[in-house]
Amino acid sequence: MEENQVYQMPLIGDPAPAFEAVTTQGKIKFPEDYKGKWVILFSHPADFTPVCTTEFMTFASMADEFKALNTELIGLSVDSLYAHIAWLRKIQDIEWNGMKDIEVKFPLIEDIKMDVSNKYGMIQSQSNTQAVRAVFIIDPKAIVRTILYYPASTGRNFDEIKRIIIALQKADKDNVATPANWQPGQDTIVPTAGSCGTAKERMENQDENNYCLDWFLCFKKEK
């Protein structure tokens, strides 16, 4: 990173910052290498730490589930490539929560100079030498769609991260929104009407595929 260079953390709806990096799976160029893919870019504070170890075991065990959703995983910390490799090898020796012999096949970025982590706002006030526990969900057009931050003491909920991917893909595909606690297969929300006339029509034109609880709350049946 250039001295005194200041980065603005990307916000939801912004283009994801581009970068080139060395990883445990070779060099990557983002977003060029991930065209047409959803991406989960996530950071962790440090290798050889307990919470991060459980997270990497969980992410690696779910890698095929994410691939089935056209989603690639990219990890990051400010540790060296050698530390990454040693840690990932050690993870294969650990058995936890029904998982064992876990091989991490997705790339883990070496970010010693904090180039990528600074571009994504992963270095925050709790430490200027470690990345926070962050998650950026980026769509196939390289647009940031979700940002999640967790404190160092709290492991991420990976079922929720997967649910967010599914919900975003559903919203994009069918032009709908998803209600609180939505799960795949449940009814979705029809976007709010843009005018009173349209709202009235929505209330009057309910059918076997759509229903409204009020003019501003209409659902599309998914079953």
Short description:
With 223 residues, this protein is of the alpha+beta class.
Protein traits:
223 residues; alpha+beta; Glutaredoxin; 5-stranded mixed β-sheet; 3-stranded antiparallel β-sheet; 23% strand
What does this structure look like?
The chain is α+β, with helices and mostly antiparallel strands. The chain has 2 domains: 19-165, 3-Layer(aba) Sandwich (Glutaredoxin), CATH 3.40.30.10; 175-223, Antioxidant, Horf6, Chain A, domain2 (Antioxidant, Horf6, Chain A, domain 2, 2-Layer Sandwich). It is built from 6 helices and 10 strands; from the N terminus they run βββααβαβαββαβαββ. The chain has helices at residues 50-61, 63-67, 81-91, 115-119, 158-174, 196-204, and strands at residues 19-23, 26-30, 38-43, 71-77, 108-110, 133-138, 144-150, 188-190, 210-214, 217-220. Strands 5-4-3-6-7 form a 5-stranded mixed beta sheet. A 3-stranded antiparallel beta sheet has the order 8-10-9, with no helix packed on it. A two-stranded antiparallel ribbon has the order 1-2. The longest helix has 17 residues, at 158-174. The chain is elongated and about 65 Å long. The mean pLDDT is 91.
